[in-house]
Amino acid sequence: CGVFGVTGVTDAANFVALGMHALQHRGQEAGGIVSHDPAHGFNSARRFGYVRDNFTKASLMETLPGSLSIGHVRYSTAGSKGNTQIRDVQPFFGEFSAGGAAIAHNGNITNAEALRRELIERGSIFQSSSDSECIIHLMARSLQRQVPERMKDALRRVEGAFSIVAMTRTKLIGVRDPLGVRPLVLGRIGEDGWALSSETCALDIIGAEFVREIEPGEMVVIENGEVASHRPFQPARPRFCIFEHVYFSRPDSILGGRSVYETRRQIGVELAREAPVDADIVCPVPDSGTPAAIGYSQESGIPYAMGIIRNQYMGRTFIEPTEQIRNMGVRLKLNVNRALIRGKRVILVDDSVVRGTTSRKIKEMILDAGAKEVHFRIASPPTSWPCFYGVDTPQREKLLAATMTEDEMCSHLGVDSLRFITLDGLYRAVGEANGRDPHAPQYCDACFSGEYPVEPADQIEKGFAL
Ligand code: 5GP
Ligand code: SF4
Ligand code: MG
């Protein structure tokens, strides 16, 4: 998901809609905005579909007045997965004795089901199936008066990944979980305006200046143009999601002081060193494989070419939740540039292999177009474990790499060769010169290593074996 908020600007909801538009790659199922102004109080709108199809209508935006506003773009990983109901669309809103608050959450709460059971037993009335709603109920039960203090109480009981943008009548609040699994940044706009965003690319769109990242375990409370920093949690060693660098974030964003584009290009350089092969052209599987393909081509000296053309009017295939749509999706989205491919030995670079649906289809399309050889180079290690922290990977059984070796995957996909970047190579590309520290990994890489930095309690209860 993507979260965004602004304060201290006229018609804040317009800025939020723009920010959400720039974060659309983080969630395309639905979006919601909450705003507040003294005359009308809190207002909210939740809609299915793209930001551009909903939140640009003047009639709708007029219902969201005020200088303080937050928004959320949804990609379901918990709750009604693949079957989003409007009641699951964030931001969630709650009215407490200290006044109302709205929250927008990116990440996944790993003990949400246990918390929900406990809360329902104690009388909470849940409206949605979303894991994020627990936070509002925990806040309602806190004995603290002020909303930020209630939120601290609530979040100390929550496990897993959360980057949250929240608001009260007067405050904009941002929080990251102690490990800082999902991103969140602070920006400055105009004289005394501030913005919080999942990624820096959404600051650019509203002309805000990137100030800094919210630190893992930090809460910022912004009021009257001032930013106050709090540390509500026990300090921990950060474990940012390494897959944000590989795929999830936009290449024009800055993560951990590094350009995402540059990191991805460097992944391609590492791949070319680790897994060279003689071929005529290097083609990306667009768009997610493009920067890595550029790096691979630069390092190997094999010319870069656009062998696959992407229809710009399709979203991210993976994020379309049902199997059927996903199967068609590849063809709806990608087509082979036949004239270029015929008779060539082709290196295809993609960011990841999950179920193998994309790679299989693409291989068929490329061979059908007359390629002589097809070599897959993948910009992440084999995805052999599900993510429980906010990225929608399927159950373990459906992950190709969970049941097959690299050689078996190669013959299953029917390609001439298949190589993944190593975990150390990936760490080098994100700037860790000595690779991964096996005793204290610098990132979360559970989907590749199976080492989960936060125990997935709900999953273990349901029988998931580590
Ligand atoms: P597959 O077709 O193998 O199931 O999925 C791989 C494709 O899904 C890649 O092209 C990648 O760009 C895309 N993808 C989108 N979202 C995700 C995600 O959350 N995890 C992974 N590993 N790949 C994703
Ligand atoms: Fe990111 Fe993978 Fe960790 Fe999920 S399991 S947070 S996708 S690195
Ligand atoms: Mg892709």
TrEMBL record:
<dbReference type="InterPro" id="IPR017932">
    <property type="entry name" value="GATase_2_dom"/>
</dbReference>
<dbReference type="GO" id="GO:0009113">
    <property type="term" value="P:purine nucleobase biosynthetic process"/>
</dbReference>
<dbReference type="InterPro" id="IPR000836">
    <property type="entry name" value="PRTase_dom"/>
</dbReference>
<keyword id="KW-0658">Purine biosynthesis</keyword>
<feature type="binding site">
    <location>
        <position position="288"/>
    </location>
    <ligand>
        <name>Mg(2+)</name>
    </ligand>
</feature>
<dbReference type="InterPro" id="IPR029055">
    <property type="entry name" value="Ntn_hydrolases_N"/>
</dbReference>
<comment type="function">
    <text>Catalyzes the formation of phosphoribosylamine from phosphoribosylpyrophosphate (PRPP) and glutamine.</text>
</comment>
<dbReference type="GO" id="GO:0004044">
    <property type="term" value="F:amidophosphoribosyltransferase activity"/>
</dbReference>
<dbReference type="Pfam" id="PF13537">
    <property type="entry name" value="GATase_7"/>
</dbReference>
<keyword id="KW-0408">Iron</keyword>
<keyword id="KW-0479">Metal-binding</keyword>
<feature type="binding site">
    <location>
        <position position="350"/>
    </location>
    <ligand>
        <name>Mg(2+)</name>
    </ligand>
</feature>
<feature type="active site" description="Nucleophile">
    <location>
        <position position="1"/>
    </location>
</feature>
<comment type="pathway">
    <text>Purine metabolism; IMP biosynthesis via de novo pathway; N(1)-(5-phospho-D-ribosyl)glycinamide from 5-phospho-alpha-D-ribose 1-diphosphate: step 1/2.</text>
</comment>
<dbReference type="InterPro" id="IPR029057">
    <property type="entry name" value="PRTase-like"/>
</dbReference>
<dbReference type="GO" id="GO:0000287">
    <property type="term" value="F:magnesium ion binding"/>
</dbReference>
<feature type="domain" description="Glutamine amidotransferase type-2">
    <location>
        <begin position="1"/>
        <end position="225"/>
    </location>
</feature>
<keyword id="KW-0411">Iron-sulfur</keyword>
<feature type="binding site">
    <location>
        <position position="447"/>
    </location>
    <ligand>
        <name>[4Fe-4S] cluster</name>
    </ligand>
</feature>
<feature type="binding site">
    <location>
        <position position="387"/>
    </location>
    <ligand>
        <name>[4Fe-4S] cluster</name>
    </ligand>
</feature>
<comment type="similarity">
    <text>In the C-terminal section; belongs to the purine/pyrimidine phosphoribosyltransferase family.</text>
</comment>
<protein>
    <recommendedName>
        <fullName>Amidophosphoribosyltransferase</fullName>
        <ecNumber>2.4.2.14</ecNumber>
    </recommendedName>
</protein>
<feature type="binding site">
    <location>
        <position position="444"/>
    </location>
    <ligand>
        <name>[4Fe-4S] cluster</name>
    </ligand>
</feature>
<dbReference type="GO" id="GO:0006189">
    <property type="term" value="P:'de novo' IMP biosynthetic process"/>
</dbReference>
<dbReference type="InterPro" id="IPR035584">
    <property type="entry name" value="PurF_N"/>
</dbReference>
<keyword id="KW-0315">Glutamine amidotransferase</keyword>
<dbReference type="InterPro" id="IPR005854">
    <property type="entry name" value="PurF"/>
</dbReference>
<keyword id="KW-0328">Glycosyltransferase</keyword>
<keyword id="KW-0460">Magnesium</keyword>
<keyword id="KW-0004">4Fe-4S</keyword>
<feature type="binding site">
    <location>
        <position position="241"/>
    </location>
    <ligand>
        <name>[4Fe-4S] cluster</name>
    </ligand>
</feature>
<keyword id="KW-0808">Transferase</keyword>
<dbReference type="GO" id="GO:0051539">
    <property type="term" value="F:4 iron, 4 sulfur cluster binding"/>
</dbReference>
<feature type="binding site">
    <location>
        <position position="351"/>
    </location>
    <ligand>
        <name>Mg(2+)</name>
    </ligand>
</feature>
